Amino acid sequence: DNFAHRTAVRQALANDKDWQGKFISAALPLLEKQHNEVAYLVPWCQLGKPPKEGGVYEWVTFHMKPGGPALWGEAFRAAINAHINTGYTRLIGVFHTEYGLLNTVHVLWWNESPDHRAAGRHSAHEDARVVAAVRDSVRFLESQQNALLIPLQCSPLK
């Protein structure tokens, strides 16, 4: 919620012997590298929920040109809204980095299945509304990376 809360949680975990013994000691040998960042939900987006249990998520990371949302925010938002308005996928949240690699935006989408996601993406590529909005937004894009996420049973987003 805030940096004071984050600091308190990190301190509590550092002092939690059960956490240290069962998780950290087991995970450390498997750890090759770690990347940390702090991101916030953009002001124009509310955190969504999937319409039902199950499904898959797509985590899309956009590295935008330097200048921040003042430069590319309006075009980026229009591209996101074009995807939302078509109904090909469901938005869960849009997050912008505060610390870490700046000008990074993460978008979390929900789909019923990987096949449903593929069909929606294909339809979006042929939808003039989406194509026009994305064309305007990509002029600010440096790179993009997509990952398919399949939640575990313990995930609150399962």
UniProtKB/TrEMBL annotation:
<protein>
    <submittedName>
        <fullName>NPS3A protein</fullName>
    </submittedName>
</protein>
<comment type="similarity">
    <text>Belongs to the NipSnap family.</text>
</comment>
<feature type="domain" description="NIPSNAP">
    <location>
        <begin position="1"/>
        <end position="46"/>
    </location>
</feature>
<dbReference type="GO" id="GO:0000423">
    <property type="term" value="P:mitophagy"/>
</dbReference>
<dbReference type="InterPro" id="IPR012577">
    <property type="entry name" value="NIPSNAP"/>
</dbReference>
<dbReference type="InterPro" id="IPR051557">
    <property type="entry name" value="NipSnap_domain"/>
</dbReference>
<dbReference type="GO" id="GO:0005739">
    <property type="term" value="C:mitochondrion"/>
</dbReference>
<feature type="domain" description="NIPSNAP">
    <location>
        <begin position="57"/>
        <end position="156"/>
    </location>
</feature>
<dbReference type="Pfam" id="PF07978">
    <property type="entry name" value="NIPSNAP"/>
</dbReference>
<dbReference type="InterPro" id="IPR011008">
    <property type="entry name" value="Dimeric_a/b-barrel"/>
</dbReference>
